[in-house]
Design goal:
By secondary structure, this protein is of the alpha+beta class. The protein has three domains: 48 residues, Ubiquitin-associated (UBA) domain (Helicase, Ruva Protein, domain 3), CATH 1.10.8.10; 92 residues, Elongation factor Ts, dimerisation domain (Tetrahydropterin Synthase, Chain A, 2-Layer Sandwich), CATH 3.30.479; 38 residues, GTP Cyclohydrolase I, Chain A, domain 1 (Orthogonal Bundle), CATH 1.10.286. Helix content is 52%, strand content 17%. It contains eight helices and five strands. The strands form two sheets. It has a three-stranded antiparallel beta sheet. Strands 3-4 form a two-stranded antiparallel sheet. Helix 6 crosses helix 7. The longest helix has 20 residues. It is flat and about 55 Å long.
Length: 200
């Protein structure tokens, strides 16, 4: 453990970059003696390890949230799950459910929760379009260009990949993972449905 003492500004900056909790960020900055890149890497590895551990736990509690927008012209239902009734009733969890609803209602293109939910044929068709668009580029970089465009498309259509509307430096997934770390539970956006008057 180093003698380094991070400033409040350093802690705030790293929290904004990673979405990790204040104490976790402070501890990692101390451990890495203020090396921001090393701290980010450590937080990412810890987050992945915790997420993997939590992801295996069954989510049988939670909440179905509803939001009506534009005087009844648009509406969203979303099911967000957790492990215990205690967390489901917590202010932080309920605030997250509301934010999920607002995130979906503010984007017309959101179709799936995660990239894993995108059907393989849809993904491949989209990738083929980007390969065609990159046909005039050197062969060695065409696939990278197509994959890059696919990642940008995921940000439009997959909820967890989108920039979080309250802080676009974070993704919805980072906010979900931060809540999972904070509560010690598996927080899962299970599904959502969006409705627009006159829509399909």
């Amino acid at each position: 453990m180093s003698d380094y003492k991070p400033s409040a500004a350093d802690v705030k900056a790293l929290r904004e970059m990673t979405g990790a909790g204040m104490m976790e960020v402070r501890d990692v900055l101390v451990e890495t003696a203020g090396d921001v890149d090393a701290a980010k890497k450590a937080l990412r590895e810890r987050g992945q390890a915790k997420a993997a551990k939590l992801a295996g736990r069954e989510t049988s509690e939670g909440q179905i949230g509803a939001y009506i927008h534009g005087g009844g012209l648009k509406g969203v239902l979303a099911e967000v799950r957790c492990n215990t009734d205690f967390v489901a009733k917590s202010e932080a969890f309920q605030a997250f459910v509301k934010d999920v609803l607002l995130q979906v209602v503010s984007s017309d293109g959101t179709r799936w929760v995660s990239t894993a939910d995108v059907p393989a044929d849809v993904r491949e068709a989209e990738l083929e379009i980007y390969r065609t668009q990159a046909a005039d580029r050197p062969e060695a970089v065409r696939e990278k260009i197509a994959e890059g465009k696919l990642r940008k498309w995921y940000e439009e259509v997959c909820l967890l990949e989108q920039p979080y509307f309250r802080d676009e430096k974070l993704t919805v997934e980072q906010v979900r993972a931060a809540l999972a770390r904070e509560t010690g539970e598996n927080i899962e956006i299970k599904r959502f449905s969006s409705y627009t008057v006159g829509g399909a």
